[in-house]
Each structure stands twice: as C-alpha cells, then as structure tokens.
Amino acid sequence: MCRPDLMNAGCIMKPIKNRWPVGEQAEFLEKLGEMMMNGYTLLDALSMLELQLKRQQKTDIAFGRRKLAEGYPVFQVLNMISFHKAAVSIVYFAERHGNVPFAFMQSGELLRRKIEQAEKIKKAAHYPAFLILTVCLIVYMMKAAIVPQFSAIYDSMNIETPFLTSFIFLFFESFSLLFLCILAAAAVFWAYYLYAFRQKPPEDKMALLIRIPLAGRILKLFNSYFLSLQLSNLLTSGLSIYDSLKAFESQPFLPFFQKEAKRLIERLKQGEAIEHMLNGHPFYEKDLSKVVAHGQLNGQLHRELYSYSQFLIDRFEKKAEKWTGLLQPLIYGFTAAMILILYLSMLLPMYQMMNQL
Known about the structure:
Elements: H1 22-37, H2 42-50, H3 55-69, H4 74-80, H5 85-97, H6 100-156, H7 163-195, H8 202-209, H9 215-236, H10 241-250, H11 255-269, H12 274-278, H13 288-298, H14 301-356
C-alpha cells in the first residue's frame, strides 16, 4: 500500500471495480467544482453531495473522504473509485497547477461532451440499425424457405435461370458465408488486439490508430485538445514549459502523453524549440505548432493554448455532426438496396416463369 507521505503519481492503489456511469461522473464532478468555487471546502462539498447519491455511490464517497483525510491526493482517490481516466488525469494536473475546482468543472464538461456525442451517434444509428437487422432476418428466411422453392420450380420445368435471377440466388446463397467472414474478421481483430496490439509501446499504438479513417481524425483532435488545455493550465500556474512537460511525464494514467513528454523533454535539453518539435507531428493537428509559435512571440502562450483548446472542442463537435449526418444516408442507402434485392427476388422469377408458359 502507498504511504500518504510518500505518495506520487507512480504509486496508484487498486481501483474499486464498480465504476459509476460516465453521465453520473460528469454530473458529480461539475457539481463538486461548482460548490468549491462557491466557497465549500473539498470535504464539505463531498459531504453535501453524498446525501444526494445512491447507496453504492455513498459508500464510494465515504471511502474517498476517509482516504483524503489520511492524506491521499484527490486524483488517486478518484482513481480508487474508478473514475474515468481522462477526468483523473485532468485532476492530477490541477493538483500541480493549483486550480482543482476549475479542473473538476473541466473534467465534468469533457465527460458530458463525450456522452452527448455518443448519444447523437446512437440516435442517428438506432433506427437504421433496426432496419438492417430486420432486412437481414428477412434475407435469412428467403434463403432458407423461398429461394430453394423457386430453384426447385426452375429445375422441374427445365427452364434456364436468367442471369439476373441467378445473381440474386447466388447473393442469398452467399449471405451466410458473408456473415461468417465478418465474424471471422472480428475474431481475428480481437485476437490481434489481445495478443499483439496491447503489447505495443504507446507511440506505436498511436501511430497505428492514427491511420484509421475517422478514428484517426478524432484522436488527433483529442491529443491536440488535451495537450494544449493542460499545458495552458500548468503555464498559467507559473510553471515553465520544461516543468509542465515533467508533470506530463510523471502522470501514469495516459501512457502515450507520458512517453511524448519524455521525448519532448529530451529534445528541449538539446536546445530545440517546442514549436519546431510539434511542426509536422503526425499525432497532433497541423496548426498546433503555429499556435505555440504565436504564443511564444506575444508572451501569452498560456492564453493562446487555452483559446486553441476551446476551438478544438468546437471543431470536434462540428465534425461529429457532419459524420453523423453522413451515417444515416449511408445506412438508409444500404437498407434500400437490400429491400430492392428482396423485391426483385420475389417478382423476377414469377415474371420469367410466366413468360415461359
């Protein structure tokens, strides 16, 4: 167990397994930050919020208050009760720069925005996904019952099956094979994730993920957002760029940023400017280096980085709306094509047999 008087970022106690729903984490953190900004101490705010929580959550907060009283830092207590890593890391940096109430508000807002975007995507995909499942069920019934009947009729009447009808029959016969191929591909990807991807260094993982369409774009936005926001907070507290990067290096929650900070520190020691390090960096937005250079010139790097982080949040939300808007037409188009194939599979054989009579 970690001794409170020797605690640091590398000494992390085992988290409680039961994690709060992310939405409840966001609401709790925002309320906690708001109460502390209104003059409550951390322990008083926790005691007040504990009265409004569910039974298990009350137990977690009571446990957390005991640990705080023993001298454990806030970020470790949040980690112990299995709060989201992004929220824990923001609070970790806050304990370095001193503005913990603001960090609670920031982390709650970040989690809330994540939930909102996830809900938008779910809402956009919910009905189309239901349609696709329904069509797949109908396709299976056609393959199992109706298509064999038509094939038997063609054989019994010695009628040559037209090309289009043969193609539709082949589509139904291949449907199970296609489904099995999708399952096999999913199993291969899952095995690769478990036995190969998880063993890679953080920078290799990021280099691979950044190449994935859409997901890579989201990662670039998040990396740039998180780095600019936390650097801004640390610089605002009076730390130098070097000391701010040392804070990134010492946090254990986000291994990628830990390794990135170590690499940037080594290049700083060699005399290279941070804006040059970030210029053309594949893991961040292209304009991040320009923002850093501009902030260095006018002596307001902390302000420039904070403003930039807010621009990135807006940019992410606009892109998420755009991608969600593209998702529905694509799913509807696929569903319409499947329905057309079903329609043709019923009508074409009947018309062709009528022409043969």
